[in-house]
Amino acid sequence: MSEHGVQGPQVIRNACTAVLVHHALSEEQDTLLSSTGALCCRSGEKTGRSPKDKRTVLEEVSKNHVWWGKVNTELPEESYGIVRQRAIDFINLKKLVYITDAYAGWDPQHKSKVRVISTRAYHALFMKNLLIEPEQAELEDFKPDFVIYNAGAFPSDNNVEGVSSKTSVCINYKKMEMVILGTEYAGEMKKGVFTLMMYLMPLKNLLPLHSSCNVGPAGDVTLFFGLSGTGKTTLSADPLRRLIGDDEHVWTDKGVFNIEGGCYAKCKDLSREKEPEIYDAVTFGSVVENVVVNPASHVIDYSDCSITENTRCAYPLHHIPNVMIPAMVDRHPTNIILLTCDVFGVIPPVSKLNIEQAMYHFVSGYTSKVVGTEVGITEPTTTFSACFAEPFLAMHPMVYAKLLEKKLREHQTDIWLLNTGWINGYVGSAKGRRIPLKYTRAIVDAIHNGTLRNAKYQKMDVFDLMFPTEIEGVPAEVLNQKLGWGSDAYDQQVKELAVKFAENFKTYQDAANESILKGGPVNA
After folding, report:
1. Is the CB of residue 265 less than 8 Å from the CB of residue 286?
2. pLDDT for residue 188 is more than 80
3. pLDDT, tens digit, for every residue of 465-476?
4. Which end of the chain is more exposed for a tag (fewer CB within 10 A), N or C?
5. Which residue ranges traverse the bilayer (predicted)?
6. One of 54, 190, 232, 369 is an active-site residue; which one?
7. 459 and 487, same domain (yes or no)
8. Within this chain, do residues 401 and 334 fall inside the same structural domain, yes or no?
9. For residue 377, is pLDDT > 80?
10. Among the options 23, 46, 54, 191, which is catalytic?
């Protein structure tokens, strides 16, 4: 490890699951095995991502590709050198250092070799689960394309130019490295790899997507786009379909491949009744973060979110019984479902989009940030997240939008807008409630079995969204939000939301073509 500056007394490389579990239990506080054998860990003070502390190094290789601004805040190269050395110095002070060598991307033509250097066995097991394990022979001459230095247990120095707090998450495309200081939340590593792929793939004219993916018995492929907590993992885990992946994919000229080797599911209120595939995946080898565990029985209480609302479980794909491995498919998507969590409670539970609407809503990325997924999010908050992936975009949203538009036109994919948020009223109102999962599943089933292609549709005012008037198992007052509200307040809410859409899209208006602009609200 000398090429990375790592000279710790004991370096453990690519340990098996049992060894990493043993080390975590013996070396880390508040760590235990659940009654089902999963490793239960604490991530410390930070229990969600820290997007305000993310920095991208300003250098000549990537500076003309990166979308500079609030998402990609620049860090001078000199500052990066200081931050990097601080991380290495801390790593070298630890008696145990863990190396995880693995791949990002199942497609042999487009995979990246990733090396993770960490000081916690929990972090090593997490990335072992979420990346793709190489064969033993591949490890003998493994030369990484991208290196993560995870020194998250040690604070950053906010006296360094460009560093604003004790937390620092830095990515350097010239050196192909990432450095983490001041946060032990494992999701930072996962999303760092995703951000890397969001940078690399468009350079090859490939489309990286914040999406889940599954495939039906007839080979039909569905992509679910959405922010964390909007339903990607839940809806793609379907007993009638094979899972490709739950969060990160790339759409190529041949089909779709998963970037990851595992899943990272939210655990709040997890039950076998609602989500059997995910519930049963929480076994030996899985990593469960920040949950409350009964000290006597070691049973996880998924309803207790006293540590954080953002309780999580990371498990390898093979923990899901109907997964497809290798996690890739040589067919193009039949359906794309844009997941929005509408806290205004006016977007229909499902709408059929034309290409112009699909592009407008993809670039807008209207949804809400779900409680706990980021530091400081304590209640559902309306947000516009470009491409349903704004925190992870390396390039301007229009780069991804143009790639998507080209593919939609080439492959005549059906596009749907699915509201997994509020119905009958806005969040916090007397009548407003989150749409029950059973209705959302019935809608997705109707998309997959083809009944929605031939359904009768009605147009929503202002947004011009076409929604079906009838779906088996879903009440009419759920499908038609205006009926569910039963008051004139609905119309006012629609107008208020339309104004928010128009205000948000001003950011992209100059870069958008005329057809995309036609997909937005009318007279907003």
Report:
1. no
2. yes
3. 999 999 999 999
4. N
5. none
6. 232
7. yes
8. yes
9. no
10. 191
